[in-house]
Amino acid sequence: MAIHGGFTGISGYGETVVPIYQTITYCYKTARELADVFAGTAPGYIYSRIANPTTAVLETRLAVLEDGIGCIATSSGMAAIASVMISLADTGSEIIAAAGIFGGTVSLFENTLARFGIKTTFVDIADTNNFAKAINDKTKLIFVETIGNPRMDVPDIPAIADIAHQANVPLIVDNTVTTPCLIKPADFGADIVIHSTSKFINGHGTALGGAIIDTGNYNWANGKFDQMKRLSEKFSRLAFLAYLRNLVYRDLGGCPAPMNSFLMLQGLETLSIRMIKHCENALKLAEFLEAHPKIEWINYPGLYSSIFHKRVTELFSGRGGGLLTFGLGDKQKAYQFIDSLKLARNAANLGDAKTLVIHPASTIFHEFSAGQRQAMKVTDDMIRVSVGIEDFEDIRDDFEQAMEKTFGDKK
Amino acid sequence: MKLVINGKDADINGKLTIIQLLARENVKMPEMVSVELNGEILKRSDFEKKALEDGDAVEFLYFMGGGHGII
């Protein structure tokens, strides 16, 4: 489905690759025809900020892969998260989020959404009951990542889904770092799945993008969301996606460029084999680092010694993803190690075919106070690795020589 | 097999999946259509798997972003 889904040659020329519809708008022969499309009484493209044929194929494929009823693609992962939050939460309402999530998402919740009177409570996933304790009648949604980035913790998604549904609120799961190749959150009770497609789905660091998939699990007509009431009568469980497409997504302008949707489609075609290689290399590197005498600590949920190994087996079919974090004792050694790497690049992205490293405390999390970083378990000695798909021996040799340079001797 | 398609009665020969019905009915922009079968919105992965049965009611739905008028 990643290769063929949703595409049977939309132009009629028999092309084998999805064409790039690099157009802003779409012409109609009569004023009446265009008026009918605006009125929603006839199907048709209007303007590429709202929908575009290239992007529509990407949306269809992602919906199929995530076992959803539909998808809306966005200009970035942050645009996807922001659009969902603005659609579901309003002034005075509350969000519950896992504490160990991506710094950009924390900033959206703590700074931008807080300005509009939306409060977020961050809870440690170590005890799933923390989610139940944090819920009150103002709670509109629960947000988690499949693997918290960068602390690499794995939430008990089925149990959190049960807690959310007992309170009648949707569970939003960010599946960026695992992709549908490792887990379909829909199968474990997620209501909305979010992606930064810029990462593993694109896979080559060439285009920014995001996606919102409605799994069809949540009943938008249950009275929790007044803004979806009329749409639920017309579109049933599609109400949320219709609300986005016709209002929030259209109004905010977070659409992807058609060229970027094309690049995501290229990435999807090789996603499954790349994910296997990312995971294999990450596990081997984690085992190498775990055995290294100079390593202070390592977080990789796929390691047998990880407290999350059982959950990785149950949720991700045993594959621990392509990300890991480890510590060398202090910031100076972390910097020295990063500066000594030759193959791995020092960069803020992840999910690239190339191995990338970063010092999270002084980059992605630099705007947070030392106390906040401590609460998020982003230590000063932490190095994050997005393990690429190079030959593993080349990655290992690079890390080995960087360790020797950092510590001034052989292990 | 008798179906109700967008509220109209239809007589179909042989078995059909949803995706085959979309092609047979020459449905516009299949990449943008959603399908409701007997009141339930289908997952997109069901389009190729789901076989229609006698008496099924099928609705083709679009929400193309014309604006909040439909909200």
Fold blueprint:
The complex is a heterodimer of chains A (411) and B (71).
Chain A lengths: L30 H9 L13 H13 L4 E5 L2 H12 L5 E5 L4 H13 L3 E5 L5 H6 L4 E7 L11 H10 L4 E4 L4 H4 L9 E5 L13 E5 L14 H7 L3 H14 L5 H33 L6 E3 L9 H8 L6 E5 L3 H10 L4 E2 L9 E3 L11 H6 L6 E5 L5 H16 L4
Helix pairs in contact in A: 2-10, 3-4, 3-9, 8-9, 12-14
Chain B lengths: L1 E4 L2 E4 L6 H7 L9 E4 L2 E2 L15 E5 L10
Parallel strand pairs in B: 1-5
Antiparallel strand pairs in B: 1-2, 3-4, 3-5
What brief labels describe this structure?
heterodimer, A: 411 residues, alpha/beta, seven-stranded mixed sheet, five-stranded mixed sheet, 12 strands, B: 71 residues, mainly beta, 10% helix, globular
Please describe what this structure looks like.
Chain A is of the alpha/beta class and 411 residues long. Chain A contains 14 helices and 12 strands. In chain A, the strands form 2 sheets. A 7-stranded mixed sheet of chain A has the order 1-7-6-5-4-2-3, with helices on both faces. In chain A, helix 3 packs parallel to helix 4 and helix 12 packs across helix 14. The radius of gyration of chain A is 22 Å and the shape is globular. By secondary structure, chain B is mostly beta strands. In chain B, a hairpin with a 2-residue loop joins strand 1 and strand 2 (8-11). The termini of chain B are far apart. Chains A and B meet through helix 1, helix 2, helix 8 and helix 9 of A and strand 4 of B.
Short description:
The complex is a heterodimer of chains A (411) and B (71). With 411 residues, chain A is α/β, with parallel strands linked by helices.
Beta content of chain B? 25-35%
Number of DSSP helical runs of chain B: 1
The largest contact between protein chains, plus residue counts on each side, is: A-B, 45 and 26 residues
* Largest sheet entry of chain A: 7 strands, mixed
* Overall pLDDT of chain B: 89
Rg calc of chain B = 13 Å
C-alpha end-to-end distance of chain A: 47 Å
Unreliable stretches of chain B, pLDDT < 50, 5 or more residues?
none
Number of strands of chain B: 5
Please give the alpha-carbon distance between the first and last residues of chain B: 36 Å
| Order of the strands making up the biggest sheet of chain B | 2-1-5-3-4
Topology as H/E string of chain A? HHEHEHEHEHEHEEHHHEHEHEEHEH
Largest sheet of chain B: 5 strands, mixed
Total helical elements of chain A: 14
Q: What structural category arises from helix and sheet content of chain B? A: mainly beta
The best one-word shape of chain B is globular
Radius of gyration of chain A: 22 Å
Pick out the low-confidence regions of chain A. Answer: none
Helix content of chain A: 25-40%
Question: Rough shape of chain A?
Answer: globular
Indicate the percent of residues in helices of chain B: under 10%
